[in-house]
Structure formats: structure tokens, C-alpha cells
Amino acid sequence: MSSDRPTMTSAEHRISEPEPNTAGLVPITPGTRRRVVGATFIGNFVEWFDYAVYGYLASTIAVTFFPPGNETAQLLSAWGVFAVSFLIRPIGGFVWGWIGDRYGRKTALSWSILIMSLATLCIGLLPTYEAIGMIAPLLLLLIRVIQGFSAAGEYAGASAFLVEYAPRGKRGRYASVVPASTASGLLFGLLFVTVLTGVLGQPTISEWAWRIPFWLAGPLGIIGLYIRMRLEDTPAFAELAEKDDVVRAPWRELFVDNWRVLLQTFGAALLNAVAFYVLLSYMPNYLETQLNLSVTEANVMTSISLITYIGFIVITGGLSDRLGRKKVLLSASVTMFVLAIPAFMLLDEGFFIGTFVLVIMGATLTLNDGVLPSYLSEQFPTKIRYSGFAVSFNTANALFGGSAAFVATLLISWTGSTLAPAWMLMVAAAIAFVSVMMSKETSHQALRT
């Protein structure tokens, strides 16, 4: 076993099942774990920068790629494309899960970042609606679907990768690197768009400069791919391969032997699916279009919220190592349910109060998101871990995450109430609470084999 294995707690001593040979075929050193964390962070950062830029430029993309005449219809069309790209994610979850469980986590993660970067670069090269008419939004939709397919393998694969490298007792902290790097990619994308707009001005952004963040995907993707290709696959997967115990078709074991766990993890992922995209991706557009804040004010407020989110995320992951996954996840659902309506009511009370509210909501979200990667990974055995995580997480995001901005915009249009997103958060929090309550505590147990 690795020399840096932590001292077992009293809870761990009560587990009769011995910890699996997480060292696999190659001893794990602290340096190896640092490289794994760094490579996972950078790769995930690149993927989610690529994926998020679309959301932050949604207003510009709306007028660039869709027929003029009705601004609400244009914006709904842009968010509709964003939502449709998520519908491919369950299919992507099956494909990437099969690749990751059959051929290794490293293989799946390397291909996912390559496909994402190429697709994002292509968005920056697309002609506009004015140039080629309805072909423009169709091409945009096609590329967004490719992006959605790629993203389906990223979050699940990166989480499984870190959990399988982490020592028991620190899996929550290690896996929390995934949402931290995701939020860092979002933050960098938002800051990049904000600075670009401030330097060049909105007219130039609308004319051509919106393409620059998409062009940046090329060199960033090459860097991320190079770093990932230098990693060894996880010890847990290497051990399965050595024993010739790699599952050929994970779907039967997933849907026949683990269907209850699959439903529970789907429900547990709903709060992340809705809240992450409402609070961290849709929010700048909401503040700008619904509360009439300037682009700069909206972006700065969301940036501060993202910084808070990143700062707290690793803390909450580590907290779940001590208190248990269920306690922290349940506290997230309860807090989000209670705060949602008051928070959205206060967003319209000025820049400073609105910023404070977003900071509180971002911190609340970390109670869920900092724990979810380790929680979902621990629910499934090693041979179908990638598939189980990818299918449950991506299905939740496909049905409720990608559509969050579209549904929020539509509900506000129908009801005339800017509180519609808050009701969405409350429903998601309630479902997540029930799902987590029904699941097993896994933080102090050995990974299922």
C-alpha cells in the first residue's frame, strides 16, 4: 500500500471489508497524487471554459445567429440551443461510461477534451444568420450537440479519476477539485468576456470580437490534452484490467443490479443540475435582462459569487470526509430551499446587497457541489463507476440543468414574476433531499469493487 495512507478513524475500524488495493500495479506517491490533481484541474478547467463561454455571450449569440425582430424570441432561441445540447448528454454518458469502464478513465478523458476543444473552436468560425440565413443556427445547434456529448464524459470521468487515486478518508477533498476547476473555468470565461467587452466595447463584441473566446479553445485544448496524456490510468482500473475483470457491457449491471442506486443518484444530482446553471451560468443574463443591471455590474456580481464558490468548495468536500456525505448534502438542500425566495427578492435591492446575496447562495451551493462528486462515485462499484456516475449525473443535467435558463426565461415571460428561478431551486432542493435520505452513507467505507 501507499506510504501516505492516512490514519484510520474509529468509524473506519468498524468496517469489516478491507480497503481494496488502491495501489494497483504501480505504487502511489504523494507526487503522483499532486500530478493527478493538477492535471485533472487543468483539463476540467479547459473543458468548462469552452462550454460556459456560450452562456456568457448568450445575448450576443441571440442576435448573431437568429432571425431579427423579436428580442425575447432571439434570446429564447439561444437558450433553447443551450438546452438542446444537454439532451445528448445521457447518450454521451452511456458512450463515455462504456469507454471509461472498458478502456480506462484516461482514454475517455483524453478524447473528451479533444472533441470539446475542436467543437468550441468551430463556433468561433461560424458564419452569421445575416450571411447564410437559417443554416447558421442549425450549424450552431450541431456544434453545441457535439459539445454536450463531450461534456458528458468530463465531470464523471474526472471525479472517478480523483476518487480512485485518493486515499480513503480524503476522497471528498480530492474529488472537490472537479467542481472547483469547473467553476474556475466559468470564472475565467466570465472575466475574459467582461474584460474583452470593457476594452473593445459592446458594438465591437457584437460585430466580431465575440469569436475570440471560442478561438482560444484551440491552444487551451492542446495544453490540456498534453497534460492528460502524460498520466497513468487509475490504480483501481489497472487492478481490474490485470485481473481481467473489466466489464464488457456495463449497462446490464447498471440497470439490473444497481437500478435503485441509479434513481437515487439521479435525484441527488438535481440540485446541482438546476442551481449550478441558474446561479453561476444564467445569472449574468438574468441580472441584465430581468433586473436591468449593466453588463459590467451583472458580470462583476457573478464573478464575486464564483470566487466565493471556488473558495468554499474544497472546504465542503473535506467537511464531508469528517461529517459524512449525507449530512452535508442534506444541509445544502434545506438551506437552498429556505433561502431561494428571499434571495431572489433581495437581488433587486442594489449592487452591494445583490452581490452579498449571490455570495451567500454560492456558498450554499458548495455544500452540495463540493460533496456530490465523491458521493456519486462512491455509490457505484469500480467496474461501472464511470457509467453509473455519467448516466445519473448527465441525465439530471440533460432534463433539468441545460433547460434551467430556458425554463426560467420562459416562466418569467409567462408569469411576469422574476421569482420564477427561485421556485425552480426549491423544487430541485426538495427532490435532492428525499433522494439523499434514501441512500447509504459511504464516506468511511472502502470503495465498492
Automatic annotation (TrEMBL):
<feature type="transmembrane region" description="Helical">
    <location>
        <begin position="420"/>
        <end position="438"/>
    </location>
</feature>
<dbReference type="InterPro" id="IPR011701">
    <property type="entry name" value="MFS"/>
</dbReference>
<dbReference type="InterPro" id="IPR036259">
    <property type="entry name" value="MFS_trans_sf"/>
</dbReference>
<keyword id="KW-1133">Transmembrane helix</keyword>
<keyword id="KW-0472">Membrane</keyword>
<dbReference type="InterPro" id="IPR020846">
    <property type="entry name" value="MFS_dom"/>
</dbReference>
<feature type="transmembrane region" description="Helical">
    <location>
        <begin position="48"/>
        <end position="66"/>
    </location>
</feature>
<feature type="transmembrane region" description="Helical">
    <location>
        <begin position="135"/>
        <end position="162"/>
    </location>
</feature>
<dbReference type="InterPro" id="IPR005829">
    <property type="entry name" value="Sugar_transporter_CS"/>
</dbReference>
<feature type="transmembrane region" description="Helical">
    <location>
        <begin position="388"/>
        <end position="414"/>
    </location>
</feature>
<feature type="transmembrane region" description="Helical">
    <location>
        <begin position="208"/>
        <end position="227"/>
    </location>
</feature>
<keyword id="KW-0812">Transmembrane</keyword>
<comment type="similarity">
    <text>Belongs to the major facilitator superfamily. Metabolite:H+ Symporter (MHS) family (TC 2.A.1.6) family.</text>
</comment>
<feature type="compositionally biased region" description="Polar residues">
    <location>
        <begin position="1"/>
        <end position="10"/>
    </location>
</feature>
<dbReference type="InterPro" id="IPR051084">
    <property type="entry name" value="H+-coupled_symporters"/>
</dbReference>
<feature type="transmembrane region" description="Helical">
    <location>
        <begin position="328"/>
        <end position="347"/>
    </location>
</feature>
<feature type="transmembrane region" description="Helical">
    <location>
        <begin position="78"/>
        <end position="99"/>
    </location>
</feature>
<feature type="region of interest" description="Disordered">
    <location>
        <begin position="1"/>
        <end position="24"/>
    </location>
</feature>
<dbReference type="Pfam" id="PF07690">
    <property type="entry name" value="MFS_1"/>
</dbReference>
<feature type="transmembrane region" description="Helical">
    <location>
        <begin position="261"/>
        <end position="280"/>
    </location>
</feature>
<feature type="transmembrane region" description="Helical">
    <location>
        <begin position="174"/>
        <end position="196"/>
    </location>
</feature>
<feature type="domain" description="Major facilitator superfamily (MFS) profile">
    <location>
        <begin position="36"/>
        <end position="447"/>
    </location>
</feature>
<keyword id="KW-0813">Transport</keyword>
<feature type="transmembrane region" description="Helical">
    <location>
        <begin position="111"/>
        <end position="129"/>
    </location>
</feature>
<feature type="transmembrane region" description="Helical">
    <location>
        <begin position="353"/>
        <end position="376"/>
    </location>
</feature>
<protein>
    <submittedName>
        <fullName>MFS transporter</fullName>
    </submittedName>
</protein>
<feature type="transmembrane region" description="Helical">
    <location>
        <begin position="300"/>
        <end position="319"/>
    </location>
</feature>
<keyword id="KW-1003">Cell membrane</keyword>
<keyword id="KW-0769">Symport</keyword>
